Amino acid sequence: MTKFIELGMSKPVAHALKNVGYTEPTEIQAMTIPLIMAGHDIMASAETGSGKTAAFALPIIECLHEPDEKTRALVLVPTRELALQVAEQFERFGSCRRLRTVTVYGGTGYQQQGRALKSGADIIVATPGRLLDFMEQGTVDLRAVEMLVLDEADRLLDMGFMPQVHRIVEKLPRERQTMMFSATIDVRVEAIARRYLIEPDTVRANTRQIEPAAINQQIIHVDEFGKDMLLAKLIKELDTSSVLVFTRTKRKASWVKRKLRDSNVLAEEIHGDITQVQRERVLKAYREGKFSVLVATDVAARGLDIPTISHVINYDLPDSPEDYVHRIGRTGRAGRAGVAMSFVSVEQRHLVRDIERVIGRQLDPDSAARKKLPPRRFSARGRRRIV
Questions:
Q1: Do 31 and 93 fall within a single domain?
Q2: Which of 156, 218, 271, 285 gets the most CB atoms within 10 Å of its CB?
Q3: Which of 20-24, 109-113, 333-337 is most confident?
Q4: CA distance between the termini of the chain
């Protein structure tokens, strides 16, 4: 069985890993750490929950070795939550090296982040827009960067950040090591790799199955207007302290939170309209078990890593099967079992078939029988379907 010390980790870093419960590397870590330590450019793909953050954080910590007055490693991520998560891992693993990590993201004031940058950082973890702002102000100097990571490169593309990424990378030294990590490697990601990476090694880990095997996935057919009552009933019956509910829109997230509270279920919400201060307060309380249900949109939940989440409930199915995989990956983490429940209305049954094709397994045993659906009848008000 491979140990971290066999991958090139020093004894102090291996000891720090042991202190936080890491006993052996995951597949993506075992495949990428030696390559990064050897100075190779990397294009890596791994499913959610595979340990990819440590796969690049650990070798960066080893390669930087000691603190310096200049920034030598830069990690670009698509969301604030992911930035905080990645920075936390650098701080946990790099405690023995005294390396300083500064996190830069939007949705909060500039002053504190600006002061942190001026005080010096060995590693910067940033969202592209806010980092570019600081670069234009002359607050940050990236001329000494030796290692660049584009984390969740597919999401950086999907969320429209690539123009900012291009402008940032143009200011970095040409002599550097570049690593790209993505849930999927498609033609778009490959195009980015050709632009930024030099003779990269391609690593595909955990490709035998797209969704985590420990997750019990369930389809629940429900009328659109019956979701609120069913959700409250299910959560009360589950008797669990940590449920994550996904909705499509910010407005629906607020609606679901209010409906749950009306049913005496402790719930909070996170989405794009929630400030970073509120977001951090809510997530801290959620981790501490002060409320049991978090309602979130896809963008807000990117990078969310809370191992104790036992159930994910898709109040609305996403349009993209890849987003479905990401959502259910929020449970069943760190070797725990997890449950993912998806509410499916008549209007969303076609999305189930799309998901089944992508993950390579049948979720709905009745899907074949439901291909020929009876015509729907509506009440005179044109809203509630008569069943």
A1: yes
A2: 156
A3: 109-113
A4: 56
